[in-house]
Every structure is written in C-alpha cells, then in structure tokens.
Automatic annotation (TrEMBL):
Keyword Secreted: no
Keyword Transferase set for record: yes
Lineage start: Eukaryota, Metazoa, Chordata, Craniata, Vertebrata
EC identifiers of the protein: 2.8.2.-
Keywords, ordered alphabetically: Glycoprotein, Signal, Transferase
Transmembrane segments annotated in the record for this chain: none
Position of the signal peptide: 1-17
This protein's name: Sulfotransferase
SUPFAM superfamilies: P-loop containing nucleoside triphosphate hydrolases
Family per similarity comment: Belongs to the sulfotransferase 1 family.
Any Pfam family hit: Sulfotransfer_1
Length: 314
C-alpha cells in the first residue's frame, strides 16, 4: 500500500512538471512518513525481496558497510544514520562476507537483499561479525576496493562485559544454564584469553587484517562510548566521511530517562532501540576488571598507533 501511494505521488509530480530532484525528495519524505504505518524498513517486517520497486529506484551493492564491532553500538549507529534522507539501510544483518554459505550465493544474491534506493542515496549494510572475520576484508575489497567502511568501537573491557551480558540473557530466555562472568573469564586462576568475547576486543589484531586491503582513510572509526553520551558530533563526522550534506540535527535526539540512553525523533515520531539494547551489566569483581584492563593495555596502545588516534579506554 505504501509503495502504491508513493507511485501515485511520483506520477502526479511528473504530470505537473515537477523537477526530478523535487519528485525524489518528495517521495523520500513520503516514504519516511509511511515507514511506521506500513512496517517498512523495520526488523519485524523487513522482506526486501517482496517489495514493490518505486519508479526511479534500484537495488544497489552497498557503498558503505558498518563492519563492526559486535556490541560496539552498530545498531544504534545504523538507526541514527537512517535519519539522513540520502541514506537507506539494510536493517537485517546479512552475514554475506563472513559466512561461507552466504558468500557462495554470489553478489547478485547479496544485492537483492538491499533496499531500493535512488541514485543520490547511499546504501548502508551492517554486519558486526565482519570486523573479526579473517575472510571479510579480502572479500569486500574484491567487491569494491574503494568502498567506505564504518567501524564503531568502545572500551574493550566494557565490550567484553556487554558481549557476556547478551549471551547471558539469550541463554536465560532459551532456558539454558548460565555462568557468572568470572567463571568464564578466569580459568585456573588465569585470564581465559581464548574466550571469544576477549578475542573480539583485540582491536589491533583484527585491524591489521583490514589494513592489508584498505587504506586508513577508507575506514572511519566511530567512538561508541561518545555516541552513547552525545550522538550528534559523532554522526556529523560520519556525514563528512560519506560526503553527505549535514542533515542530522540535535533535534533528532532526546534522552530517555527510563532507558538511560538517547532515542530518535524523526518525521514526527519517536523511537528507541529494542529493549534488548542497553541492558544493565552485571557487577564484575574488581580484580577481574583489572586483569582485563591490563591484558588489553598493550593491544590498545598498538591500535592507537595503527590508526593515529587515541581513545579514552581503561
């Protein structure tokens, strides 16, 4: 229904001699206003393969990809970028470059999972698993060697705890046994460095692989800790990186006291991230925290040297 209305709008605009740019802009506004009503572009109802193609649009291979990191704030970044009228987002995680069974289906299959977009719009896909995948950098480079990559990172220790928290609640919801974090992070009195959550926080190790295929100016790093506290400055940097006009404003955000983080205000409606986001972290033994921070210290310093930038990480 939404796309029938859009098509009617476009036809009327063309009939009355409206310029193409105006028509596309109007359609963009109309699409945005219909997203909530029709359930388009949402996780719950997304099914790009069954969408009706609006006139003047095509599915396109992403011009930018949010490559990670898991529990770094990728969903928040994607939702906030979706405010921009020149960005369209694939709201489901595709796992094309990190899952062999999907990559074997080919680029045409991948493109068909993308939303329709106009020529002046950038398609953005996000799959947090790409950053820690050994195969993803080469595969993405093969698709488009000049692509712009977005990487959102947060304090490595906090990211480990957040990673644990997600798995903890998932196991509870599926009635599976759970362990306290100290039992997983510490084994035989020593830090369990083979724990996947710890491995994912070794940013320098993973970044080294990406820099084999992409120059540093193709990878924009978003400070996930800052994005949570004050979204606009980080998003303005992304707009500049993607060569977009500044269209995201402070009025697009409001702090939700109940949830404890910023929510989005756009096109006359308000929305917050899913309830699974922003869950309270467990209290972690201070000695364990210190062990994690000590382990990441050298890795963090190495990462700072690699990207010519420092972060306020413990």
């Amino acid at each position: 229904m939404a796309y029938l209305l859009v098509s009617a709008f476009l036809l009327a605009a063309q009939t009355h001699g409206a310029p193409k740019e105006y028509s596309q802009q109007g359609v963009g506004v109309l699409l945005d206003s219909l997203k909530l009503q029709e359930g388009l572009f949402t996780n719950e109802s997304e099914n790009y393969s069954s969408q009706v193609q609006p006139p003047g649009t095509n599915r396109r291979i992403p011009q930018s990809i949010i490559i990670g990191v898991r529990k770094g704030g990728t969903r928040a970044l994607l939702e906030m970028l979706d405010i921009h009228p020149e960005i369209v987002v694939a709201t489901t995680e595709v796992h094309f470059f990190d899952w062999d069974e999907n990559y074997a289906k080919g680029f045409e299959w991948y493109k068909n999972l993308m939303p329709f977009s106009y020529e002046n719009q950038i398609t953005v896909e996000k799959t947090p698993g790409y950053f820690t995948s050994s195969l993803s950098p080469e595969r993405i480079h093969e698709m488009n060697s000049s692509i712009k990559l977005l990487l959102i990172l947060r304090d490595p220790t906090e990211r480990v705890i957040s990673d644990y928290t997600q798995v903890y609640y998932n196991r509870l919801e599926n009635h599976k046994p759970v362990q306290v974090i100290e039992e997983i992070v510490i084994r035989n009195g020593e830090l369990n460095t083979k724990y996947k959550a710890i491995q994912r926080s070794l940013y320098d190790v993973h970044m080294e692989n990406w820099l084999k295929y992409f120059s540093l100016d193709q990878i924009h790093i978003v400070d996930g800790d800052t994005l949570i506290r004050d979204p606009l400055p980080e998003l303005q940097k992304v707009e500049k990186f993607l060569n977009l006009r500044p269209r995201i404003m402070s009025s697009n955000f409001y702090f939700n006291q109940t949830k404890g983080f910023y929510c989005i205000r756009s096109d006359g409606r308000e929305r917050c991230l899913h309830e699974s986001k922003g869950r309270p972290h467990p209290m972690v033994n201070s000695t364990v925290l210190e062990q994690l921070q000590a382990y990441f210290k050298d890795h963090n310093q190495n990462f700072y040297r690699m990207v010519n930038r420092s972060f306020d990480w413990h």
